[in-house]
Amino acid sequence: MSASVFLVTPPFTQLNTPYPATAYLKGFLNTKNISSFQADLGIETTLRLFSKTGLIQLFAAVEKEEKIRSENAQRIIALKDDYINTIDTVVSFLQGKSPTLAHLFCKRNFLPEASRFSQVDDLVWAFGNMGIQDKAKHLATLYLEDLGDIITECVDPHFGFSRYAERLGRSANSFDELYGELQKGYTFIDNILINILQTRMIEVQPKLVAISVPFPGNLYAAFRIGQWVKQYYPGVKVAMGGGFPNTELRSLSDSRVFEFFDFITLDDGEAPIENLVKYIEEEIKIEELKRTFTLIKGKVTYINNQACGDYKQGQVGTPDYSDLLLDKYISAIEVANPMHSLWSDGRWNKLTMAHGCYWSKCTFCDISLDYINLYEPLTAGLLCDRIEKIIAQTGQNGFHFVDEAAPPALMRALALEIIRRKITISWWTNIRFEKSFTRDLCLLLKASGCIAVSGGLEVASDRLLELIQKGITVAQVARVNKHFTEAGIMVHAYLMYGFPTQTAQETIDSLEMVRQMFQAGILQSAFWHQFAMTAHSPVGLHPEKFGVKKETEAIGTFANNDIVHTDPTGADHDTFSQGLKKSLLNYMHGACFDYPLQKWFEAKVPKTKIAPDYISGILNEEEYTPLNPAAKMVWIGTKPVLETFTKSKKGNHWEMASLTFQSKRETVNIKVDQAQGLWLADMLRKLSVNNMKTYTLQEVKDSYEAAGLADFELFWDNKPVSGLYKFGLLRL
């Protein structure tokens, strides 16, 4: 098992699926014949903690602590034997290994229950007629959260299922607080983590430990890992990379950080990690490192060898999920938000359609950074090659494309290639709600296995969307959401409040837009975020253009990203937080649409100025799609059954054609003039997705007219032919 590089994800990210950074790097290192081993120490620590042995140790540690305990903690301690005797059963169920236990859990007399179960009275309201498996998963999740509560109260205040010591990593301009915590003795969770790390280090014997830190909630554990390796394996180099340093540590200057790490790399990790390996192997000098902080003569130094370029996306290899405990991950259902449930339930292979963002204009986003600003798409063929390889390796057919915003043209090409290769997957991704998502494109995406999309509606106000440079309008979002919904694809919207200059009126009007979208059924899931100014966004770089002032420059010796600011013309945004979230929770469950908006808020708010039928009016407008001669015509349906017959009426006779189309759920028969029918059957054969040659609408028209047939537009854009999109005739 020994390897040159030990790739580590520290606790804690998701419980249901591995964070993909180490799999991406391992796939790249494979192309360079550099041996590596990867471990998700988050899931390994979780499984060690939530086991019979782990709980015996936990309760022993709890009972050692002499402190005043809450009534809830006292109840859990009193039921410790019930927890110890059921924990392995619960974890096995959440791993998908014992599905019949769902019936036992739902009887509500098997699992011990503490304060988290107080919300179960709302289970029917929250989950409706969801299946017994999902109800049982939710109950089992509450059970684990009860145990999490006693951990944080009694033995480790830093604990969190998907974030460990997150507060220490958030906006930590100074390293002082985190450094102080790291000088203390190990916590209960630290001891579990270090015990696992010790075993792994003996097995792997690496020359480089590369720790990926995607979020603030991974930072503390990353430093603990680095601290232990530096103490017990001083000859092994330790590096940190990932989303957190990419955004937060770009102006790092505190030399104490390098008591824990030898190197910190920024942005795309492939070239930096390759150069680190070469440096450790003494193949290159230290000044040849790529985008790397290190300590030279006691001073933090940033080295970026400009002669070393980055790799193209086609060169980085297929993500490699080997070594990870893929059958051990835990599917939880924490909240009744459909997209969050999708996120946390089931195993999703992570892939990227394109590096960076094809739009790269949103003013709240860190678009000045290369990992967003440098856009490079893959080809549909290469993506499908990687999909097939990952399915063969993992046995899992679920994919989450983790793009900043997936490009519609590439989504179209990918969907066609998936259908052409007959690959069976379910997938979801992040998008912009742009007009490219037509009815027909959404139907194609659905046919390829797309089950959900998430996108930024942000502030549902046309003035603010223009200020954000989102490139969309509320009306456009409504139409696009209708297309996705009617195709059977779930839509989740990221919502924002508190953008610079946003008034109380605009906040309430945005809420009304959201209410109407849920009521119209074109939005199924959403989440409100409060705007945060970041150092690398246009708002953070040029606040004066947005009417706000910085209170801090976010310049420290450690992390540097979030900026405190004042908004002289905007509303008091904090007063809207609870009301926005409470109203949204109800709307997601189809409730309280007739509830006056003012009643969601404790403070007085203005009445909405949005007409109550604004969204429904947009949706009821007939959409006119002009004929685009360059549009690609594709047939993804089955071959129709063609029959010819003679129609007679009052002594007149017509030669007719009957075409019968079968879909998975219905049958339709159309009757047209025989010459038109014969031409149509032949054209559908040519338009089949299985053919590599594609035809434009103009080429279809030319073929029609070459057959001596008249009035193409009258035939093509009217019933019965115009209804064939339901059976797979798509204009893309």
Keywords:
single chain, 732 residues, alpha/beta, 25 strands, 16% strand, globular
Give the topology.
Elements: E1 5-9, H1 21-31, E2 36-40, H2 41-49, H3 52-64, H4 71-78, H5 80-94, H6 101-106, H7 123-127, H8 132-154, H9 166-169, H10 176-182, H11 188-204, E3 208-212, H12 219-232, E4 237-241, H13 243-248, E5 263-265, H14 270-280, E6 292-296, E7 299-303, H15 338-344, E8 349-351, E9 354-355, H16 370-373, E10 376-377, H17 380-394, E11 398-401, H18 408-421, E12 426-431, H19 439-447, E13 450-458, H20 462-468, H21 474-487, E14 490-497, H22 504-520, E15 525-530, E16 533-534, H23 538-541, E17 549-550, E18 562-563, E19 565-566, H24 577-588, H25 614-620, E20 632-635, E21 641-649, E22 652-662, E23 667-673, H26 674-687, E24 695-696, H27 697-706, H28 712-716, E25 729-731
Parallel strand pairs: 1-2, 1-3, 3-4, 4-5, 8-11, 11-12, 12-13, 13-14, 14-15
Antiparallel strand pairs: 5-6, 6-7, 9-10, 16-18, 17-19, 20-24, 20-25, 21-22, 22-23
Helix pairs in contact: 2-11, 3-5, 11-12, 17-18, 18-19, 19-21, 22-24
